[in-house]
Amino acid sequence: MKIGVPKEIKNNEFRVGLTPSSVGEYASNGHTVYVETNAGSGINASDKDYELVGATILQTADEVFEKAEMIVKVKEPQPVEWARLKEGQILYTYLHLAPDAAQTEGLIESGCTAIAYETVTDDAGTLPLLAPMSEVAGRLSIQAAANVLEKPNGGRGILLGGVPGVERAKVVIIGGGVVGTHAAKMAVGLGAEVTILDRSVPRLRELDDLFGGRVITRYSTRGALEECVLAADAVIGAVLIPGASAPKLVTKAMIAKMKKGSVLVDVAIDQGGCFETSKATTHADPTYVIDGVVHYCVANMPGSVPLTSSHALNNATLPFGLKIANMGLDALRADKHLLNGLNVHRGMITNQAVATALNKIMVQPIDALNNGQNLAA
User: Fold this and answer.
1) Nearest-angstrom CA–CA distance, 317 and 93
2) Are residues 148 and 101 located together in one domain of the fold?
3) Where are the beta strands (DSSP E) in 148-232?
4) To the nearest 10°, the Cα dihedral for 66, 68, 70, 71?
5) Domain count, the chain
6) What are phi and psi of 216, to 5 degrees?
7) Which of 112, 114, 176, 187 could form a disulfide with 171 if both were Cys (CB 3.0 to 4.6 A apart)?
8) pTM for the whole thing?
9) Which domain holds residue 206?
């Protein structure tokens, strides 16, 4: 198969779809890999590094999209990239379609087959291709909160861990999954007072055991959530409903009553955000203030640490990507977990959460693959 790796063009996105070592794996399996010039510059990988492992360097993204049968990216395609996709081409990347009607329409109109990292599953019921970036984002969320809490950056002027004789910061984490767990690890390590809210009692028990009593666990009712949020110096939104838009758990009314200079970090912003006042920001302009509360809602947080993020992502995506390259769409027919990653195929939406969020018709992925025609027409 002909694999294409374009340079990421989202604002301040420095990751790359395939690292040189991953390209070497594709090449050793007999596949041709086209890499746009300077695609790996964000991870200090030169064109020569890619050529040494068998890649062909192309000068423009247009050439990459034109020649490739499968495009491997990191972030969702931008409008200029929708226009480059073509019928029958495979797109393998993060998509986050539920809150993004425009991108969904672009993919539908292209006729491509779009496989979303974030909805691929495994036997344990987890999301193995989302997990590495959730780990990175969870840890970064605390770094971001600590930075924004500093007075010159608009915050209350409080040190997360405090010092002897001075109260430490209160960090509230909404959601006890991968993001929440890794956020808690960082916050506890910095000495903050940490509370995790979740609606799964078994998960709260696991977190209590994991942290040995160093975090406070709360069952997430509306009352408990409001109580914690109003007491917090920093709130981390770590909620995930796979494939679906994130629920707006923290309301405008709650935010209006929070401490002035407190911080909201919305890691769920890729799925629309879990704070009612959230809107996506970039690394170039990461924060804004509403009712005296600083909002940090960067939609590609792991892009700020591309070397770590690209290698962590490739470790997870490479086996599935190779399976697609080796077998084509039969890889999806043979692997139910990879099939769960199929979000759009030849004009059809094949993920129920996406279809529900956008009020569209959903076609069962296996039916879409086997039919090959636009059943949604």
Assistant:
1) 9
2) no
3) 170-174, 193-198, 216-219
4) -60
5) 2
6) -95, 130
7) 187
8) 0.90
9) 131-304
